[in-house]
Amino acid sequence: MNTSVFLPAIPVITLLLTGLLCTCAPSPTEKSDENIELPNPESSPPSLQRGFPMDTLPAPAPPPPIDYDTTEWMEITRHDPTILLDLRYATDSNFMERVIYDCGRCFYRPKVGQALLRVQERLRERGLGLKMFDCYRPGPYQQRLWDVLPDPRYVANPARGSLHSRGAAADLTVVRLADSSELDMGTGYDYFGEAAYTTTTALPDSVLANRKLFQEAMIAEGFLTIRTEWWHFNFSGPRYPLSEWVWPCSNDE
Q1: What would the pLDDT profile of 158-214 be if each residue is shown by its tens digit?
Q2: First and final CA of the chain: distance in angstroms?
Q3: Which CATH number belongs to the domain containing residue 191 in this structure?
Q4: Residue 184: inside a domain, yes or no?
Q5: CA separation (Å) from 152 to 23, 55, 72?
Q6: Which of 131, 172, 205, 242 could form a disulfide with 161 if both were Cys (CB 3.0 to 4.6 A apart)?
Q7: Residue 34 maps to a domain
Q8: Which of 222, 124, 219, 239 minimizes the C-alpha distance to 174?
Q9: Per-residue model confidence (pLDDT) at position 59
Q10: How far apart, in whole angstroms, are the C-alpha atoms of residue 37 and residue 152?
Q11: Does 188 map to a domain?
Q12: Ranges of the chain whose pLDDT falls below 70
């Protein structure tokens, strides 16, 4: 007789399931992957986020294409956008109270433009800069001025021409770069009277000092004053021919 203990048979499938449960279930001190809390990318510090932020600024727009002959002309603000424009004849804010230019752009002969850029650099050292009232004036626009006011005391006869129409004259003033405010020159632009004369000395000391600073900066780069208008300067370089060229206007001007 066999005296060994006889154990009841355990189904094989039960043993297999028990083994699997013992080897796969995590212990109370362990964490499974599904219980690990991952950081939220949107709430993480920027230094921990991958990729680029959604509010990345777009690249600046390229400058408009050049639409003029650069051997003949220079558009001053394309070379130095800190030079301000207040082109009065492109508006009705002028002594004729009417628009003369189809749109406002500021061109010079290249040599004249380069001289103005040097003036701007001189003034920048003092926190100052230039504001342009009038630049190159095409022959057809000179004719429009003459048609409104045919008086050579105030407007050059187109038949004789103006240095503006040669691209070698500038009407301008000086501003503070910090806030674009104009220095006090005693009168406004296109004021007709002795207070605007460069020879007038019966003016406040501050005005005389501002005019002196302005004239010295311009004269140092080859410009000459005229007696009746503190804002007007002629370039002393070569005498350029009169020009009929009119700059193009874009659709948004």
Answers
A1: 988 899 999 999 999 999 999 999 999 999 999 999 999 999 999 999 999 999 999
A2: 118
A3: 3.30.1380.10
A4: yes
A5: 108, 59, 28
A6: 242
A7: no
A8: 124
A9: 72
A10: 86
A11: yes
A12: 1-57, 60-61, 251-253
Strands 107-108, 74-75: pairing kind:
antiparallel
The model's pTM: 0.75
Asked whether residue 247 is assigned to any structural domain, the reply reads: no
Question: What pLDDT is attached to residue 154?
Answer: 83
Paired residues of 84 in beta bridges: 131
The position carrying tokens 């154990």 is: 7
Q: Which domain holds residue 81?
A: 74-235
Structure tokens at 211: 């005019």
Instruction: Give dist(CA 129, CA 221) in Å, integer.
Output: 15
151 SS3 class: coil
Nearest to 203 by CA among 215, 214, 194, 213: 194
Task: Tell me what pLDDT residue 252 has.
Answer: 58
Pairing of strands 169-176, 223-225: unpaired
Per the structure, the count of domains in the chain is 1
Specify whether the CB–CB gap between 190 and 95 falls below 8 A: yes
Residues 6+ apart with CB under 8 A from 84: 129, 130, 131, 132, 175, 180
Number of Cβ within 10 Å of residue 22's Cβ equals 8
